[in-house]
Amino acid sequence: MAAQDVLGQTARLASSSALLQVLFRVVTFGLNAFTLRYLSRELIGVVNVRLTLLYSTVVFLAREAFRRACLSGSAKRNWTKTINLLWLTVPLGVFWSLILGLVWLHLLEVPDPSVVPHYQAGVVAFGLSAIIELLGEPFWVLAQAHLFVRLKVIAESLSVVSKCILTVTLVILYPHWGLYIFSLAQLLYVSVLVMCYVIYFVMFLGSPEATKKSFPVARVKALLPSFVEDETFVNWKEARLTWSFFKQSFLKQILTEGERYVMTFLNVLNFGDQGVYDIVNNLGSLVARFIFLPIEESFYVFFAKVLERGKTVKDQKQDDVAMAANVLELLLKLVLLIGLTITVFGYAYSQLALDIYGGSMLSSGTGPDLLRCYSLYVLFLAVNGITECFTSALMCKEEVDRYNFVMLALSFIFLCISYFLTHWYGSVGFILANCFNMGIRIAHSTHYIYHFFRESTHRPLTGLLPSPALLLVYLISAVVTAFSEVLFCCDKGWMARLIHISTGALCLAATLVTMFCSETKLVHFVRSQ
């Protein structure tokens, strides 16, 4: 396959994956809003934190290393040995399901059956769902290696839609079923996902299209484990690579799901607070996923192409340095203003947003304080995303290795701080720990940027300094909307809520007008780009 064809298909695959992530987030967002009206937050906490963590841990430990090893290198390989290796994910999944299932059943706190019924059945179902999903791993890797974009989109879309339809139906008809609802929905999700891949390959293999593409697997039987005479069962090079990736993936899973492991194993939050935290976390991360992540990914490519990795500012082309410095300054200003707007208005409108989204269950407890803190965390996320995007595009291998070590140390510090802050401040402690973690990372990145541009006339970090007039308007807006919340929100009826919303709309309009007048360079950049 020509490099240009690979690039085109890879781009389509990346775009499809991004759209699927948006779909999953929106569906989860809507599903949570619906189920909150019918089910307890304790039940949602057990499903979204405890049981989902069991499922994701089993699946990640059983397949992540195999995926990375078997997708490395060219698609031209001995697929019989690769498929044999991939089938080892199933017994590995059974092993992890049994071990972790026993931990979840006997070593962790068991929810009150009167509040969260059928917990044991839920553990078994989510563990079983992980094993069922692993049955489709050889099919998934084969499809991914040959860039079957449409198959992935259809399979994952159908499985998500099926899960949602069943969940909504059972929640309306049988809300007293408790964890049975989510167990059946999870089993349906993985079954539909695997069946889509199996049915596709049953129809595809041996077809004229497969022959035309010279597909390396000719028969469905070749997708099952098989011995080859006078040859090893697996490719030992791939097997050793898998072991190397497994050692990395074990640590990566602990660090990726750190908050949930702290919640699950250290009992720092009750199940109700875990449910509220997960909902607020999903709600708050929508902005980061939909706005900041696309900016970071796109401009990482820009900085990597314009500047040369590992070279000082004097050794770069000066026209390119000037362009990169200008773009970095304006990007920092853009994300800073978005983050400041969310922080300022998020403080006064968190309670109202949660009341509309989930009713009194979310708006009467710790939910509003959580979302207020998350609004501040979004500001840290915004700045960190761009500063790390720039440094990642420029650091040489030695600097990257040093930074990875720093990140590893920071991750363990984050877990420790999370534990103590959660003991002192409850679920808000997790977000405060995240703010601390992001603050340290921003300090590291800004230090790198400052030193990189020190020997030039460019000062892109000035993008982190909004105009005084805009800062004044933000301050006035924060005070006015905070007083408006005290006077009109959120138990004084819809008329009072509308007054509160109108107050916020006027303050936001004043902020945007000031922004357009004082940040003309940024406005021109956004319009032109």
Automatic annotation (TrEMBL):
Pathway note: Protein modification; protein glycosylation
Chain coiled-coil ranges: none
GO BP terms: dolichol-linked oligosaccharide biosynthetic process; glycolipid translocation
The organism's place on the tree of life at top rank: Eukaryota
Membrane topology, record value: Multi-pass membrane protein
Localization (cell): Endoplasmic reticulum membrane
Xref: Pfam families: Rft-1
Major place of residence: endoplasmic reticulum
TM helices/strands, residue ranges: 12-31, 43-62, 83-107, 119-141, 153-174, 180-205, 330-354, 374-396, 403-421, 464-488, 494-517
Keyword Isomerase on entry: no
One Gene Ontology cellular component annotation held by this UniProt entry: endoplasmic reticulum membrane
Alphabetic keyword roster: Endoplasmic reticulum, Membrane, Transmembrane, Transmembrane helix
Known function: Intramembrane glycolipid transporter that operates in the biosynthetic pathway of dolichol-linked oligosaccharides, the glycan precursors employed in protein asparagine (N)-glycosylation. The sequential addition of sugars to dolichol pyrophosphate produces dolichol-linked oligosaccharides containing fourteen sugars, including two GlcNAcs, nine mannoses and three glucoses. Once assembled, the oligosaccharide is transferred from the lipid to nascent proteins by oligosaccharyltransferases.
Family: Belongs to the RFT1 family.
Protein name: Protein RFT1 homolog
Gene of this entry: Rft1
